[in-house]
Amino acid sequence: ELYFKNLLKREKQVMEKNGKNRKLRVCVATCNRADYSKLAPIMFGIKTEPEFFELDVVVLGSHLIDDYGNTYRMIEQDDFDINTRLHTIVRGEDEAAMVESVGLALVKLPDVLNRLKPDIMIVHGDRFDALALATSAALMNIRILHIEGGEVSGTIDDSIRHAITKLAHYHVCCTRSAEQHLISMCEDHDRILLAGCPSYDKLLSAKNKDYMSIIRMWLGDDVKCKDYIVALQHPVTTDIKHSIKMFELTLDALISFNKRTLVLFPNIDAGSKEMVRVMRKKGIEHHPNFRAVKHVPFDQFIQLVAHAGCMIGNSSCGVREVGAFGTPVINLGTRQIGRETGENVLHVRDADTQDKILQALHLQFGKQYPCSKIYGDGNAVPRILKFLKSIDLQEPLQKKFCFPPVKENISQDIDHILETLSALAVDLGGTNLRVAIVSMKGEIVKKYTQFNPKTYEERINLILQMCVEAASEAVKLNCRILGVGISTGGRVNPREGIVLHSTKLIQEWNSVDLRTPLSDTLHLPVWVDNDGNCAALAERKFGQGKGLENFVTLITGTGIGGGIIHQHELIHGSSFCAAELGHLVVSLDGPDCSCGSHGCIEAYASGMALQREAKKLHDEDLLLVEGMSVPKDEAVGALHLIQAAKLGNVKAQSILRTAGTALGLGVVNILHTMNPSLVILSGVLASHYIHIVKDVIRQQALSSVQDVDVVVSDLVDPALLGAASMVLDYTTRRIY
Question: Which residues are annotated as part of the binding site for Zn(2+)?
């Protein structure tokens, strides 16, 4: 009440300032049948007060197209003089045609606006034509009044609606939520009018008219009140293919439901041509239960939906206007998903089967709900006319935005500006536990190493202790830690951050939740993955796999692991067991493997396998050659076998050749299965195997894959770098 008293006071002041004989020249631009239903009540109101207003009507868009009913005629039937007709639609009904239509409107509108010279232009809603109108008016310094700003639906219309809001100088909204949205968008509260929807002025006085003659005219003489359906469905421009499929399912459900149905043709958005094809393919225009029409005059359409048994589709009319009558509505898909609705609306958001839609029809058809007045009380037009009269044309044209107060940034010191974005990387190996601070460029700023404890309790406590220490040190090193990445042996569920099954090298490490304790302690996001996968991620971000779509990484260390990158993404497999490349079988009667099988690559080429063979030779006094010794307190290992081979030990050379051949056969299998563009050998043994592997490929692989390059990784710490990359990829918005 106080608001409207102030509005009346301002109206009188404006009239005195603008001059009592000065009329406000209002241009109303209408693009289609839907926006005219909202603009017509305002136009009638303006027309009834010729002493205050001068009305110019501009018609464009689908109003002027025969396929969409030549709906400009209803404007003429309402006795409005159309000042200008603009043919702005580029046919094609696809995304490009919509863009071209906006461009064509922008080319034609300046001449019209220069000729009419309106004081204010009234623009409705969220159509692409309306965006062209608002853009033209804003650039030509014409004040804009936007109707129905601040609402939320769920498609590209939201973006267009909000873009028009930012161009508009004045706003008429329909609901309290829309008003709050406009205020949140920094619009001036004094220039926002909560009036309700103008179409409700007509809706709420329409239901008592003679409606049976209208129903019979459109649906046939044998149709009864509340025993028919009105269907109105439009394409969703952000997902055209799905919306066409949904329309097809809707028609199938309506055919099965077997009730008389009035189907209105879709609007002119991208995808409408395909929807019309679906109608014709199913014979809707000739089906005895269907009446397919391009346009129904709004007065008659009101009566049809008011007395229907149900309305179905994705039109805003279903969730807005139809609520005034309590008619049941089935809202399909996401086109109106953000709208405020009454209890008469049943949402079928995933309308992906005929059965879902059919079930919704059975639930809704024939019900009667309480009438809803969410969008208006029938008095919008008088409020809008008062608002128009209060506009002061002497005020500066440049609109102001009401930004909320922003706290001062207290971190504008040079140290904050120069902070290095970093990740905490953890590598759980069979022997050592390592934690490192890794920068965005892949530089290891600082590394901590401890022996990996044998029990779960000791191990998890040590991880937490080392991470807390590293995070504290990161502050001194001016590194900002973005998260924690963990590389560990065994099978890992990266979605939950759980180690499902570990290798025999790490004891008490099955069904271990690593994410929760670290996240709770450090208050940082945590990622966990298998060490082979981490090596592949390291190559993708920092190594020789950078920019490649498909490659495979093989780790040759204590065990044999690997990772597969396919179409730029890491492959985990259905049970997180992908890329267990060490357990590819290359011999049916080979040595036993730690996995319980035999003949695996790991049984031949891993550090453990080489250590086993080195011990055998040493026990038989066949390992050591001239210039070589093993201290008594030192265990014989793979490196002693490699040293012996380099010094000419024939048996050691034979063992290494066999191991390299087994690895080479595994690579051949990978080439034949995955056909990657690159294979990267990583780990301490890679350089000793590379030449043997290439020889095996030349001898055993199909000619079509022999050109695939096999290289040795040049990364020093692939497990740590891969763990860090999980964090760093997230911070650069890469999907992992």
Answer: 583, 593, 595, 600
C-alpha of 529 from chain center? 25
Q: What are phi and psi of 558, to 5 degrees?
A: -55, -45
How big is the CA angle at 41 (ends 45 and 76), to the nearest 5 degrees? 95
What pLDDT digit, counting tens, does each position of 668-723 carry? 999 999 999 999 999 889 999 999 999 999 999 999 999 999 999 999 899 999 99
* Residues annotated as catalytic (active site), given as ranges: 531
* CB-side neighbour CA atoms (13 Å) of 37: 19
Radius of gyration over every alpha carbon of the chain, rounded to an integer in angstroms? 36
Q: Report the b/e string of 231-255 with b at 16+ CB within 10 A.
A: bbbbbbbbbbebbbebbbbbbebbb
Q: What is d(CA 561, CA 447) in angstroms, rounded to the nearest whole number?
A: 23
**How many Å apart are CA 77 and CA 80, to the nearest integer?**
7
326: exposed, middle or buried (Cβ count in 10 Å: 0-12, 13-18, 19+): middle
Phi first, then psi, for residue 151 (nearest 5°) are: -85, 165
User: What tokens appear for 459 in the block?
Assistant: 């191990």
Q: How many residues does the chain have?
A: 736
Q: List 56's β-bridge partners, or say none.
A: 27
Give the global pTM.
0.54
DSSP type of residue 270: T
DSSP state of 481: E
Q: In what order do the strands lie in the sheet with 120-124?
A: 84-86, 53-60, 24-30, 120-124, 143-147, 170-173, 192-194
CATH of domain 208-364: 3.40.50.2000
Mark the binding-site residues, compressed into ranges. Answer: 491, 503, 531, 580, 583, 593, 595, 600, 602
pLDDT band (50, 70, 90) for residue 501: confident
Rounded Cα distance between 700 and 662, Å, is: 12
Q: How many Cβ atoms sit within 10 Å of the Cβ of residue 152?
A: 16
What is each CA distance from 378 to 41, 148, 176, 197, 725, in whole angstroms?
11, 15, 16, 8, 59
**Using one digit for the tens of pLDDT, what is the confidence trace for 422-468?**
999 999 887 889 999 999 999 999 999 999 898 999 999 999 999 99
What are the residue boundaries of the structural domains of the chain, listed by start? Answer: 1-203+380-390, 208-364, 416-543+729-735, 544-714
DSSP at 477: T
Residue ranges of E strands in 276-337? 290-293, 310-313, 329-332
The listed CATH number (1.25.40.10, 3.40.50.2000, 3.30.830.10, 3.40.50.410) that belongs to domain 1-203+380-390:
3.40.50.2000
Question: Rounded distance, CA 517 to CA 461, Å?
Answer: 10
| Triad 146, 148, 151: Cα angle to 5° | 125
CATH number for region 544-714? 3.30.420.40
Average pLDDT of span 334-363: 88
Token digits for 357? 């839609």
Beta bridge partners of 561: 555
Q: How confident is the model at residue 208 (pLDDT cuts 50, 70, 90)?
A: low
CATH code of the domain made up of 416-543+729-735:
3.30.420.40
Residue type at 210?
D
For residue 184, pLDDT over 80 is answered with yes
Establish how many alpha carbons lie within 13 A of residue 218's alpha carbon, considering only the half-sphere containing its beta carbon: 26
Burial class of residue 518, CB neighbours in 10 A (0-12, 13-18, 19+): buried
DSSP-assigned letter for residue 68: G
- Would you say the CATH fold of 544-714 matches that of 208-364? no
